[in-house]
């Protein structure tokens, strides 16, 4: 996003879900693929196991925030980015994913003056359906550039520009960024070009840097003297006083490795900085913007795919430090030492508000459809006195003993939360092995079993 220079507001598009990884080939029992018509209610097992849908967790508007009027679709939109048009003082977005519903190819604008959304009637070629792409404003031609992203089954390796005077789309021909799900894009005045960096695809994340020249309508891959670590979904801004792109965090591998570093690009080279003092936790896909009045880079929210963030941080980009206020109590009476922790496994699932809740005997588990025709339930685990090594093994079985769904996860690569006596794995998907088991399994008793090394526990559950 760009700075809003003439009014003291920061517009952040708060999304209900983060951009998903590319799926592996669809298993034979997962049903047919449905390109560009996926229901946003969770990804199948091959999609790394994180929830990919705000439909599973309601949106609560916190104090100090306000909804805008006429938003793009009644159920929200995610997986899209904004470009700021300083001439008409509006934000422009394209594509995205509707919750629940379809991947989009619509174009919308948000007026700063009226605080309202308008669907734009564009002309030109039919735009590919895409989400999790990157976008930026091109001041030399008053156009918006979009590149990268994905549809329901593969990367979208194409780029287009939108002329804001005529509202006409035009495809960029020749080489373009590929494998660019979750890329970043910013206009760099010193280059007279837009820079596109990173992203994810079937080969994993990349560290490629591209420059787009509006005069020649062509991309060129740059060869910086130093490169940034490869990543997807970083939070990034252009900082005008130094002419640098600033990027924080992102992911190397979803559900596995997340970053909490700051990297900058000055048009020639990437530099990795070590922030001083407290900083936001490792995350990806947060909302971000540059506050020009205070020379502050603002980051809101994000996710590590086990837990969504709702914090608001303002890193001082020039000092590379995070000026966060930490409240601490002093002089409190010492608390007695807690009793020794017993070894225990406690299964959980996704709660109605998107959090974590423990599963007791008789608990209902919601069966949700995935975007490729499969079905899944959400599972999670609290473990006390258990080492963070080995494998979590999940099994959902009918009372007849028939296995309905199973999954194994290596603990050493997972994102785990600390608890008083151990750790918590907040959210994973357990995908049904056969779709035709779902009708007979609904509303019937079943057994949910989780095992870590030699210890296991079960709960009687009812899939709904």
Provide the domain count.
Answer: 2
Tell me, briefly, the overall form.
globular
**In terms of quaternary structure, what is this?**
single chain
Helical content band: under 10%
* Strands, count: 32
State mean pLDDT (0 to 100 scale): 80
Low-confidence stretches: 1-17, 23-59, 316-337
Largest sheet: 6 strands, antiparallel
In CATH terms, what is the fold-level topology of the largest domain? Answer: Neuraminidase
State the name of the first-level CATH class of the largest domain.
Mainly Beta
Can you name the CATH architecture of the largest domain?
6 Propeller
* DSSP helical segment count: 1
- CA-atom Rg in angstroms: 23 Å
CATH superfamily of the largest domain: Kelch-type beta propeller
Assign the structural class, choosing from mainly alpha, mainly beta, alpha/beta, alpha+beta, or little secondary structure.
mainly beta
SSE topology sketch:
Elements: E1 77-78, E2 82-85, E3 90-94, E4 97-98, E5 107-111, E6 116-119, E7 134-138, E8 143-147, E9 159-163, E10 168-171, E11 184-188, E12 193-197, E13 209-213, E14 218-222, E15 235-239, E16 244-253, E17 257-265, E18 270-273, E19 287-291, E20 296-303, E21 308-313, E22 344-350, E23 356-358, E24 363-365, E25 368-369, E26 375-384, E27 391-398, E28 403-410, E29 417-418, E30 422-431, H1 438-441, E31 446-452, E32 455-463
Fill in the keyword field for this structure.
464 residues, mainly beta, Neuraminidase, Immunoglobulin-like, 2 domains, six-stranded antiparallel β-sheet, five-stranded mixed β-sheet, 1 helix, 32 strands
